[in-house]
């Protein structure tokens, strides 16, 4: 199995490298929780990805808290969120604002559009795709998100005894 | 029962092990079933929770075996028509090589029937004579007519619902239960097939259309593969195993992994070694051993049991243990239908087109296939999957799109014959071991030219059927050209008349080891033309159990 350069250096040079290598220290001692500012930025981004209309949005259904939790359990995703939030705030500052949370709805949508259309493999694009996937995963697990879909889940205990009829007759 | 009092030890409790246990117990033969995985309770399947879609079938320790893969096949350039893709996420495999999804299986009392979709189909009789008719693969050492009475027994025990009037597969009695009505979405596919001049019929399934044998009828939640809470799906745990245990002649030991079969000097297996869930080592000496772990794990156990009496692996005198591996050859095409069809309802695979199932029915291709409506089987069952794979986007547009498309996805699934080739086999990984120190199975897989030609036909016809069914836009395709994703695996201990080219005789008995039998799809000499194998596995296992009873009475084991 291939061994990474970092693992190789750790194995061959020992702990001495730890104190001369800021990035390793940063990884080891990086807080396991997102900061308050990052939470606000991520919450605003989620509110843009799944806004409230005739049905609740991501914020109303508690999706940000679920994703904060996911970030606290997954160091890799946490790093991505940090980078993504920095990118969002940077775009906002270039628009003359303090950060993403200070943008209006239209401006947030512009920035979100930019993240969605960023080159494949770039930080904003990966941040968008992964955060959207998490958001959908948690948002659509909530029954309040099902209004308007004609969906009367969960599958049990009632099943779908009207399965031979069009769906519209069920909703 | 004392350890010494078992007449037969069965390793594995899926379709084959379960059916064999039941059939032996009916003969008052004392059976012990060793199951490597845990025991599941239907009430623990999370389908009645609001967050149901976030959960698959419950995963517990030992719920899957470990396995590895040999080098994956390089993909030929210019075959974009066979690549998997989704309209939101794009091409699914851009590596230029086949990629592994999984060998889909389940350890647990009931085996992979815990997660199967309930399909209970008989093989096409002509697909059992592939070598003599087409020079491909090998022939079955028994005919469809010989197997037919055992199909009936399996159908009664599992509670199969199916339609009358199959022109190809002779039946000596009707299905135990009437067929399930087509879903609204399934009717669209039926109508589409009619416009193409194709026949469409209700699927035969081990899913109850009426209460039967103390179990309730299906309520059409379509989530068979997440586990059946109601027990209307005829998985082995609620049918064969339950009946076997109720007989008083069968004991099940879950979390008990067989690690070695010990061969003796007189062409007999003298012991089964297993490790229980607490790490305790045991040695049993039954009169007869049936291995029923599936076409990946069964050859693993036999090869790992090599000793001085069986230096190349138990039962491997022909060198064929692990060879002739046949995998799932499958294709699915999904699109959006303009009508509110509510395709997440019904049974998982409700209707079938058998028109191309005969081995000579696909132009210029040896080996058949079948087409079915399978939106639930493609896991488009709830809002999360629709958001990720169908609607996409974000913001208000995404929510509007969800309201427009939810429930309207329609999927055609095609399953085809898989012929053996020298590049597809199971062996023991020389480097990897499981937690018990047993070498893991290595899956070596290669798609030959005939499989690729068959996949071409399957993909083309699936698109035709889908568009004829009224779909406006195709949004996703997935196939086994660029992915290995197998549920149905076959052939790695095949039956045959010639001990030089096969592992087992026509009753699943080792040509050499008199008290060693195999009862799973590894015995299949050919895969069939896309039929799901569980019913055939059960019928063969019941026949094997009958043979064991006969031989035991005559003192010939």
Question: What does this 3D model show about the protein?
Answer:
The complex is a heterodimer of chains A (171) and B (557). Chain A is built from 8 helices and no strands. Chain A has helices at 5-13, 16-20, 22-29, 36-49, 63-73, 75-94, 105-116, 123-139. By secondary structure, chain A is mostly helical. Chain B is built from 10 helices and 21 strands. In chain B, a hairpin with a 3-residue loop joins strand 4 (85-86) and strand 5. The longest helix of chain B has 20 residues, at 449-468. Chain B starts with 7 loop residues before the first strand and ends with a helix. The mean pLDDT of chain B is 96. Classes of the chains: A mainly alpha (171), B alpha/beta (557).
Question: What structural keywords apply?
Answer:
heterodimer; A: 171 residues; mainly alpha; 0% strand; elongated; disordered N terminus; B: 557 residues; alpha/beta; 8-stranded antiparallel beta sheet; 5-stranded parallel beta sheet; 21 strands
């Amino acid at each position: 199995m291939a061994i990474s350069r970092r693992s190789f250096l750790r194995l061959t040079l020992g702990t001495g490298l730890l104190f001369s290598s800021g990035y390793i220290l940063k990884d080891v001692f990086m807080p396991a929780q997102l900061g308050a500012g990052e939470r606000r930025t991520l919450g605003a981004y989620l509110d843009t990805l799944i806004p409230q209309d005739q049905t609740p949005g991501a914020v109303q259904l508690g999706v940000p808290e679920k994703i904060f939790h996911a970030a606290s359990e997954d160091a890799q995703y946490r790093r991505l969120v940090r980078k993504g939030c920095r990118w969002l705030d940077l775009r906002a500052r270039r628009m003359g604002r303090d950060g993403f949370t200070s943008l209006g709805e239209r401006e947030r949508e512009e920035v979100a559009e930019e993240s969605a259309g960023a080159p494949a493999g770039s930080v904003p694009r990966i941040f968008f795709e992964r955060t959207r996937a998490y958001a959908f995963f948690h948002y659509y697990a909530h029954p309040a998100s099902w209004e308007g879909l004609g969906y009367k889940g969960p599958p049990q205990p009632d099943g779908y005894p009207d399965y031979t009829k069009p769906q519209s007759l069920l909703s | 029962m004392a350890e010494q009092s078992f007449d037969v030890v069965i390793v594995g409790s899926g379709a084959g092990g379960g059916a064999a246990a039941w059939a032996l117990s009916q003969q008052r033969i004392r059976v012990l079933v060793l199951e490597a995985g845990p025991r599941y309770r239907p009430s623990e399947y999370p389908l009645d929770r609001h967050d149901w879609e976030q959960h698959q079938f419950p995963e517990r320790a030992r719920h899957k075996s470990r396995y590895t893969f040999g080098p994956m096949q390089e993909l030929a350039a210019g075959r974009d028509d066979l690549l998997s893709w989704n309209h939101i996420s794009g091409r699914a495999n851009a590596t230029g090589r086949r990629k592994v999804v999984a060998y889909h299986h389940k350890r647990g009392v009931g085996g992979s029937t815990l997660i199967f979709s309930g399909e209970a189909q008989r093989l096409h009789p002509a697909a059992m004579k592939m070598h003599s008719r087409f020079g491909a693969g090998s022939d079955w050492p028994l005919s469809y007519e010989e197997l037919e009475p055992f199909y009936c027994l399996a159908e009664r025990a599992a509670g199969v619902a199916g339609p009358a009037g199959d022109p190809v597969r002779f039946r000596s009695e009707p299905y135990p239960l009437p067929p399930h009505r087509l879903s609204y979405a399934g009717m669209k596919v039926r109508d589409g097939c009619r416009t193409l001049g194709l026949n469409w019929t209700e699927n035969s399934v081990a899913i109850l259309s009426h209460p039967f044998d103390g179990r309730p009828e299906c309520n059409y939640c379509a989530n068979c593969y997440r586990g059946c809470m109601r027990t209307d799906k005829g998985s082995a745990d609620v049918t064969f195993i339950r009946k076997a245990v109720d007989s008083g002649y069968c004991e099940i030991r879950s979390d008990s992994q067989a690690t070695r079969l010990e061969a003796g000097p007189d062409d007999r297996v003298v012991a089964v070694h297993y490790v229980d869930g607490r790490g305790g080592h045991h040695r049993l000496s039954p009169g007869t051993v049936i291995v029923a772990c599936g076409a990946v794990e069964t050859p693993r156990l036999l090869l790992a049991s090599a000793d001085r009496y069986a230096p190349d692996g138990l039962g491997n005198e022909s060198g064929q243990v692990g060879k002739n591996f046949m995998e799932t050859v499958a294709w699915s095409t999904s699109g959006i239908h303009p009508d509110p069809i509510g395709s997440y309802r019904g049974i998982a695979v409700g209707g079938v087109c058998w028109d191309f199932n005969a081995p000579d029915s696909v132009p210029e291709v040896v080996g058949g296939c079948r087409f079915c409506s399978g939106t639930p089987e493609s896991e488009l069952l709830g809002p999360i999957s629709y958001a990720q794979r169908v609607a996409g986007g974000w913001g208000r547009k995404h929510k509007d799109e969800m309201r427009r498309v939810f429930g309207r996805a329609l999927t055609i699934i095609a399953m085809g014959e898989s012929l053996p080739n020298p590049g597809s086999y199971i062996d023991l990984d020389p480097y990897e071991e499981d937690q018990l120190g047993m070498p893991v199975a290595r899956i070596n897989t290669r798609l030959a030219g005939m499989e690729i030609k068959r996949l071409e036909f399957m993909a083309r016809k699936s698109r035709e059927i889908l568009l004829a069914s009224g779909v406006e836009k195709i949004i996703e395709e997935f196939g086994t050209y660029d992915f290995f994703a197998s549920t149905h695996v076959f052939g790695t201990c095949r039956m045959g008349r010639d001990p030089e080219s096969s592992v087992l005789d026509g009753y699943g008995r080792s040509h050499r080891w008199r008290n060693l039998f195999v009862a799973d799809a590894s015995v299949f000499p050919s895969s069939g033309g896309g039929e799901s194998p569980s019913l055939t596995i059960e019928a063969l296992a019941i026949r094997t159990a009958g043979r064991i009873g006969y031989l035991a009475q005559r003192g010939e084991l």
